[in-house]
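Dear colleague,

Following up on Tuesday's group meeting, I ran the structure prediction for the two-component complex that the binding team flagged. I've pasted the input sequences exactly as they went in, so you can double-check that nothing got truncated or mislabelled along the way. The structure tokens for the whole assembly follow below. Feel free to forward this to whoever is handling the docking comparison.

Inputs:
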Amino acid sequence: MPPKTADNDLADPPITPATTEPAGMTYAGSGVDIDAGDESARRIVAHMRRTYGPRVLGRDGAFAGCFRLDFNERLFKRNYRDPVLVACTDGVGTKVKLAIQLGVHDTIGQDCVAMNVNDLIVQGAEPLLFLDYIGTHKVNPANIEHIVKGVADGCELAGCALLGGETAEMPDIYDKDEYDLAGFAVGVVELSRVVDGTRVEEGDVILGLESDGVHSNGFSLIRAILREAKLDLKKTYDALETEQTLGQVLLTPTRIYAKQVVSLLRKYKVKKVVSGMSHITGGGLVDNLPRALGPDLNAKINTKAWTVPPIFKFLQQHGRVEDAEMWRVFNMGIGYCVIVRPHFAESAARHLERKGERVHVIGKVTKGNGRVVMS
Amino acid sequence: MPPKTADNDLADPPITPATTEPAGMTYAGSGVDIDAGDESARRIVAHMRRTYGPRVLGRDGAFAGCFRLDFNERLFKRNYRDPVLVACTDGVGTKVKLAIQLGVHDTIGQDCVAMNVNDLIVQGAEPLLFLDYIGTHKVNPANIEHIVKGVADGCELAGCALLGGETAEMPDIYDKDEYDLAGFAVGVVELSRVVDGTRVEEGDVILGLESDGVHSNGFSLIRAILREAKLDLKKTYDALETEQTLGQVLLTPTRIYAKQVVSLLRKYKVKKVVSGMSHITGGGLVDNLPRALGPDLNAKINTKAWTVPPIFKFLQQHGRVEDAEMWRVFNMGIGYCVIVRPHFAESAARHLERKGERVHVIGKVTKGNGRVVMS
């Protein structure tokens, strides 16, 4: 792949003797458009820059991005005694297919950031940096810019730097106009403050933070339902209780909980108020909440504690999807869970609400065998 | 995507009343095979574990991988005063297509690690951790295991931990039996020891470290040449001067220079002997060496200082590719460059040779305008 340098000028390679034979084969002739790659790289730079804080070092054209972990300058002082790096990778699944179908490429990047940073913060980490990987049929500089704009938007929402990325033109892997988008996030947490779920106790309260719709999961099922029920993405439906089209509702970017959750974790400097957390992705509450629990505890969830948003009922009805399947595939309105000591449940919920979250007490931790019990 | 947990048991979701209607739609029915995903995750775990050192924390089923940056235990003591995180992402380009064509999936992972860690070390960083992203048509657990085995092999060679990964089943994006592979690496370097190229001076010596063939670049052109010249991947060719088939020669995994280069950087604790480095990827020496230079310097390269390996001559001949194009697309036998102060050129070269590298003095730094001049 051509390096993402601003300067891709050719130097002085050896000259081939003039020949009357037909011109030889070239890299460009084999389908890779280096100029489009360069234009795409130029368009991306401004979006990356707006995510940079003073901790980002380095220069354009570097082989890798540099991020200063400790930072001693007065205004931005950060120091770690025993820092633990937390890293994860995720894509956006077939939601990307819907973005392609609708020709809307500037929000899928936020989904990509969200899927990663929401996983990071589960361990108690503060997101530091992000990188994106786009594999595509042909580099369309305008589309690539839209995709990266969304990634940069997500990074701003999450408070992390978009430190780099790669756009790979692979016409033999991706069909015309198609692409895949994956992301990588790194965060940091003090060793003594890693949230690893071993702290969760019987009696802890489970706070559910509302999602912004289906987020980035279940799109293979969603797209099957769209086909089977012959639904029109460009139409509005009364059952959705919104003026948005079905396509707009489904493409709503995944909510990013990072700044709010990091703020909550910082609020309780000494006491370990937050005992566990869970990002509700594929598998829903039933598969993801147990990941925050020990094997001898259950999460008892009161499904009437919040209102399942219309989009889920709409999909269930049109796909005649069974309840159990809905709860295993979708977030059903709760995108992130924070498990707290009962004494602090009220103040933690209020703090998250002040930061913009819609919070519900959705259940509590009981003795059990590592499962979710719904009622 | 289903989370990579060992335990994907279903909990007790609400029961749907019995119905005589035809069965509703399901996630599995929409083409996503959760069981294959689980089997794949189980097969991967052992490969990940063998890359773990004592700095990896955490447990299976966690949302993100944890890596302890500072490490105070006697045997593995590592401490950083002002640590800079270095991060990058890259894929393997259309080399993956050749792996698919040959049905050989267990070395492409090393390519993926190499493309990333060789970029990291250019900044002076020591690789710490790696994550892989595989997008695929259908999860074939055996193939996924082979791919991840190669990634783990690469991580062992580079001395970093395979901290996590994602396998995304996307039948509507990837064609039958196809996949894409991208990786992401994080390293660390002391702020005072970042190699950023501003140190390179007139008179510095350029050491070229031999490549292991074409590495992971130029495969769109290579595959075009294979088609045009009707070459047979399963055949041996005299011109290749090896008993390996053409397919084996082309699939040879990208050399990983990490441990050797990190060792060299550690050797000179006080003096800054290494002034710049360059990973020779797409763009060849002509595009990649200038990334290590200031704008007022040239790299003067003596192309007779090493022998261009047979595979490059073979490709050039069969594709009637012009010299200039060859030098811009391929590494031509030099996969990594280390720029050193002239006084230390001999000892640096010897150190790298003791670590297993084949090293050539390929040129020197002169006054100029940020270009490569070949003779």
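The mean pLDDT of chain B is 90.

Cheers,
M.
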